[in-house]
Design goal:
single chain; about 800 residues; alpha+beta; nine-stranded antiparallel β-sheet; 35 strands; globular
Length: about 800
């Protein structure tokens, strides 16, 4: 089939055997098309793709922009529809990298916060004032010069100083307490002589990288010269579909543009699979759709290139449009970045059967703070640190691959109780942030269904100060009541409480401080695994400022091999100390006749680094020693899976609340079906086949954290503050030593895009300025179904 009129076909047609298939949904005679669905919506994924431009282009609100936002910006969840953006404070600073000083110019895309009238801003480059802007009341683009005299080689700082801020909390119905000055959408910096910068100031000019929707169909707009590259795992029967066109502004200017598609299956080997030159005389655009080379599951990178229409032109108005760009695939074979596939029918059936067999059990939920999985005997540790917990494991079920969503207690326990990711239940996470009152907790759900609950905590972070007592029938801050935060306080509190629970079902939560720092177990646990030295006892009674741990972490002193060995022995002694009290709690259950009426769950909120990667403690790293936690479930004998069962399916702490709610038969009630992001593990406990491979998301503390994406084999770590990336093949490098970002760039790119897509999908919506998605008309709905954006069985409303 020939190319569409007015389009010059490339040397390597996308659909090699059939040429270009024109018109949306066209099927060539004799070639029936198998049912397909959208595996990758390339317009929707623009914020997470790799973008290159001949100019410096910052698209605010995208992950790639974060390392350049050095001061004065709030992190935002991407809006449901519309362009991404970030809110600024009264002053906001952006980092720019210049090879050498020379005359440059900039275009900034801003909107003042609606609560500020007659907003103005002074713009400074490296402290020198270069512009004064008077902002319109709505979103607008402003151009200004960046004189060479104000620049320096390397790092440059562009600072906006606004005249005023206002808070959404000025409306008493809005709990948002931030002080906002303006929304930043985009910044373009180029040579002062680049006429395209002036073109971008026109009212009908596009943004350099943007997504628009027409009749519900997404369209990607590029200002060339530029490339957008998407890394993906090919679905079965992979096809690329798009409709190429010029932007209306380029047509009006009588311009032309070249559009090209490339595929990269080997690093550095981009192969052109389609190309065309479009100009104002080109006929109405027609859809291009054809097979992508490569096998299902292979990681490839697709590039959408826009450039000048001819080598002799000046390149102005090289504004390309890709209407409905998408990769199609056989249903169920695409990598949709699903953090949590829905439970199968088998899982639901097995869960129902197990719940019926159990009758009406109690649930005892035990958390060891900072308990890394690989230091428990049940997970293969050589030292006998946890004999009582190991006994529970031998009698119950061990989940081998469970991870925390947050490498710090506040985020982790908030996720345990709400079954939500930290980016959903907290905005700017800090150690003093309380759990938001509008987040449903497990204790509230159980209490509303008449189930008695009690909490016992020895870590102040896990208590009432951060709102974790909400919903409990009774809540004991043992560190306060017993004047100690060590395990023996729980040993004096929990067993007597258990002795009184002879009637009615209960849910009990017991949170140990151990093995968390300070690594200072009492005798005999201080010498359980070796001599008590060389770290002096007086240096290890705390872990805050001025301690030897802080000195080591900040590089002020070295950690000798003997000290590191002692550190590990003390940490193990802390586990053994807590384990002994777990044994006392088990004994109390046995004496009260409750052990065989109670499901016992043991886990940890996060792990602990013991200097494997140059750090002691947690909060800041995402290697497995910090995020891999135990999960052991003992079901009353004879009523559940065989003793000693091990489950290799990946899970995380968001699954705890749905599992416990499922055990009590209340999962889905009280809005939990909408609020909980985790999934019940009860079906797996009941012996269901393990679900298809999945991955888990974890993060560190503070508002610009590190994130990690970990699946069964690979881990990818991304630092939002610096843009630093790490990729590890855990099959051959379980210690996470060999960073593969440079040697395996395609997998690194795919991991990065997948991670960033996840982060956006789990975060809560922007508090101020969120745009609600528009409802689809029936015609729009049917059109999206025809292109594979919506499943064929979706019912379109009248």
């Amino acid at each position: 089939m020939p190319a569409s009129h007015g389009v010059r076909a490339g040397r390597a047609p996308l659909l090699l055997a059939l040429g270009l298939a024109a018109l949306s949904g066209a099927v060539l005679p004799g070639c029936p098309r198998r049912a397909t669905e959208v595996a990758y919506d390339l317009a929707e994924r623009l914020p997470y793709a790799d973008r290159w431009s001949s100019r410096t282009v910052i698209v605010f609100g995208t992950p790639a922009a974060e390392p350049q936002l050095t001061d004065g910006f709030y992190r935002e969840a991407a809006p449901a529809e519309g362009d991404p953006f970030v809110w600024s404070k009264g002053e906001a600073e952006i980092a720019l990298l210049f090879d050498a000083p020379r005359a440059r110019a900039a275009v900034v895309d801003l909107a003042p916060y609606k609560g500020v009238k007659a907003q103005t801003a002074e713009v400074l480059l490296n402290g020198a004032s270069v512009a004064r802007l008077t902002l319109n009341d709505t979103r607008y683009r402003y151009g200004f010069a960046l004189p060479a005299a104000a620049q320096r080689p390397g790092d440059n700082r562009l600072r906006f100083v606004f005249a005023a801020t206002a808070s959404p909390a000025d409306d008493p119905r809005n709990p948002d307490r931030r002080q906002l000055a303006a929304a930043f959408y985009g910044l373009v910096v180029g040579e002062a002589a680049d006429a395209t910068l002036q073109d971008l100031l026109a009212r009908d000019a596009p943004r350099p990288f943007a997504v628009a929707k027409t009749d519900g169909v997404p369209t990607l707009v590029e200002v060339g010269p530029s490339v957008v590259r998407y890394a993906m795992r090919l679905p079965a029967s992979a096809e690329l579909a798009f409709t190429p066109d010029l932007h209306p502004g380029a047509r009006a200017a009588g311009a032309s543009a070249s559009l090209r598609v490339t595929e990269e299956s080997q690093p550095g080997e981009e192969k052109e699979v389609w190309s065309a030159v479009l100009d104002a005389r080109s006929a109405s655009p027609r859809e291009v759709r054809g097979a992508l080379p490569g096998r299902a599951g292979e990681v490839v990178r697709i590039g959408l290139h826009v450039g000048p229409g001819s080598s002799s032109g000046d390149g102005r108005f090289a504004w390309g449009v890709w209407r409905a760009p998408r990769v199609m695939g056989r249903p169920g074979t695409g990598d949709h970045d699903r953090l949590r596939p829905s439970p199968s029918e088998e899982e639901r059936g097995r869960a129902d059967a197990l719940r019926a067999a159990l009758g009406a059990p109690n649930v005892l939920f035990i958390v060891l703070d900072a308990g890394r999985a690989d230091h428990f005997g049940a997970y293969g540790y050589a030292r006998e640190t946890s004999p009582n917990i190991d006994r529970l494991a031998r009698e119950g079920v061990v989940f081998d691959h469970v991870f925390t969503p947050a490498a710090y207690t506040l985020g982790a326990m908030s996720s345990v109780w709400t079954s939500q990711y930290p980016d959903r239940h907290h905005a700017e996470v800090s150690f003093s942030a309380r759990l938001p009152k509008d987040r449903l907790t497990l204790a509230e759900l159980l209490g509303a269904q008449g189930i008695r609950s009690a909490g016992f905590v020895s870590n102040t972070i896990a208590g009432a100060f951060n709102g974790f007592d909400r919903g409990f029938s009774e809540f004991h801050e043992v560190w306060r009541e017993q004047a100690t935060s060590t395990a023996d306080g729980l040993g004096r509190t929990v067993p007597p409480w258990i002795a009184g629970q002879t009637a009615g079902r209960f849910f009990a939560y017991v949170h140990f401080r151990e093995p968390h720092c300070p690594y200072n177990p009492p005798p005999p646990f201080d010498t359980r695994f070796g001599p008590d030295g060389p770290i002096p006892r007086e240096r290890r009674g705390a872990c805050g400022p001025g301690t030897w741990i802080i000195d080591v972490n900040q590089g002020r002193r070295a950690l000798s091999p003997a000290e590191r060995d002692h550190l590990t022995r003390l940490y193990d002694g802390n586990i053994a100390f807590a384990d002994a009290v777990v044994g006392q709690i088990r004994t109390a259950l046995e004496k009260a006749g409750l052990l065989e009426k109670t499901i016992v769950i043991v886990t940890a909120d996060h792990g602990e680094g013991l200097f494997e990667h140059g750090w002691i403690g947690h909060n800041v790293q995402l290697y497995d020693e910090s995020i891999h936690v135990p999960l052991i479930v003992r079901v009353p004998g004879g009523k559940g899976p065989a003793a000693g069962t091990r489950v290799s399916a990946m899970a995380d702490l968001l699954d705890v609340a749905p599992t416990i709610a499922d055990l009590f038969g209340v999962l889905g009630r009280g809005g939990s079906d909408r609020a909980f992001q985790g999934r019940s593990l009860l079906g797996l406990l009941g012996g269901a086949a393990e679900p298809s491979p999945r991955a888990v998301l974890s993060r560190t503390v503070w508002d610009r954290p590190r994130y990690s994406r970990r699946d069964e084999r690979y881990k990818f770590i991304y630092d939002t503050r610096t843009g630093e990336e790490e990729l590890y093949d855990l099959a051959g490098d379980p210690g996470e030593r060999a960073n593969l970002v440079s040697s395996d760039p395609l997998r690194a790119a795919w991991s990065r895009e997948s991670l960033h897509h996840w982060i956006a999908s789990v975060a809560r919506a922007t508090s101020a300025g969120t745009v609600e998605p528009a409802a689809l008309t029936r015609e729009q709905c049917e059109n999206l179904k025809s292109m594979g954006y919506l499943p064929a069985d979706v019912k379109c409303a009248d």
